[in-house]
Specification:
Elements (H helix, E strand, L loop, with lengths): L1 H99 L4 H54 L20 H22 L12 H11 L3 H8 L3 E7 L5 E7 H5 L1
Antiparallel strand pairs: 1-2
Helix pairs in contact: 1-2, 1-3, 4-5
């Protein structure tokens, strides 16, 4: 019974260890599924961020081009205004030249003055146009640098794909109960059972088993003896002795070994 209990306990421990290992395997599989799902979500989010970043970069570039166009329109307006001013200066000069066709000192002075004023006006207008052109170029370069900086920042935000890290690490499996411990336990149970058997077995008292009635009857029938004679023969404590009387007639007498010893 003790050995059977040890085997049963060993099997139960083995089944429990297998159940715990199956649970660890199930948890590891679930962790892998969660990891793969998270990887898919991170990748999709990164791809979506890349698309949004490209759209924002295009918006920044379009804004830069629009500002350049505004500066070009302003510069065109300045050049057009300068053309009208130069036109007015030429008209004023010719009016003065018409006055110079008259005679007199005043007419001659006015004719030379108009040509000088036209030259001054051209120089002033040309200088303003050059300064306006330079100012527009500087503003365009500033807008370009600002746009490049914004585009670089947008690109830096999505230039690196997501780092997913290591996959889940499985938990170590639990070893089942050792077969050696079971064998040692069974050997100990066997030794214990043998010792108990030796202790519970009665010692040899020297007594011998008496024959049964069936054995006596069988012996009497087989050898032509009486039941008393067969009983004496089969009984280890007695024996059958033939005694001859004075008439020469023999008679079987049952005697014991103890009587003979005495």
């Amino acid at each position: 019974m003790q050995a059977a209990g040890q085997v049963s306990a060993h099997n139960q421990q083995k089944s429990a260890a297998k159940a715990r290992n199956r649970e660890k395997l199930r948890q590891f599989d679930a962790a892998n599924q969660d990891y793969l799902t998270q990887v898919m979500l991170d990748n999709n989010k990164w791809k979506n961020d890349v698309l949004n970043s490209e759209l924002e970069q295009e918006d920044v570039f379009d804004s830069m081009v629009q500002q350049w166009n505004d500066y070009d329109e302003q510069l065109d307006s300045i050049f057009a205004d300068a053309d009208f001013k130069l036109q007015d200066a030429i008209i004023s000069m010719y009016k003065n030249e018409y006055a110079g066709t008259q005679t007199g000192r005043t007419a001659a002075r006015l004719a030379g003055q108009s040509a000088r004023e036209l030259g001054f006006k051209k120089a002033e207008i040309t200088n303003k146009l050059i300064l306006s052109q330079r100012e527009a170029d500087v503003k365009k370069e500033g807008v370009r640098l600002d746009a490049v900086s914004k585009i670089n920042k947008l690109f830096d935000q999505v230039r690196h794909p997501p780092m997913h890290g290591h996959t889940p690490i499985p938990q170590p499996y639990e070893a089942g109960p050792s077969q050696a411990s079971l064998i040692i336990g069974l050997a100990g149970s066997a030794l214990s059972a043998y010792g108990m058997h030796k202790l519970s077995t009665p010692g040899d008292t020297g007594m011998k088993e008496l024959p049964s009635q069936a054995d006596i009857a069988g012996h009497a029938a087989d050898h032509g003896r009486t039941l008393t004679e067969s009983s004496a023969i089969l009984n280890p404590d007695t024996y059958l002795e033939t005694v001859i009387d004075g008439d020469g007639i023999g008679e079987s007498v049952v005697k014991t070994w103890e009587t003979q010893t005495k």
